[in-house]
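pasting for the record
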Amino acid sequence: MPLQEDQVREQLKKVIDPELFVNIVDLGLIYVVNVLPRDDGTEEQPKYDIQIEMTMTSPMCPAGPQLVADSKAAAGELDGVEAVEVKVVMDPPWTQDMMTDDAKDQLGIF
């Protein structure tokens, strides 16, 4: 079965914001995940490139470089992934409304 966006998002849940102690998917930091099949893969062993667009809770987020590196590493662990590109975007700006209910519960936001 080909690699799907939801599998990448599930893998990215392993990346925990070191200040908030909540995963970056539930925080709403992941905006776009593109899984691109590569031409050099085979049906038996497909290969993929992954493009991720993510944001930070603030433009000067001190954990930004760590979150980007951890996201790239986590996505790169998936079978068949050859390359991962992570782009940080600030539009639209992140707000607490982007968090899942689970994240809000963990942070005590009602």
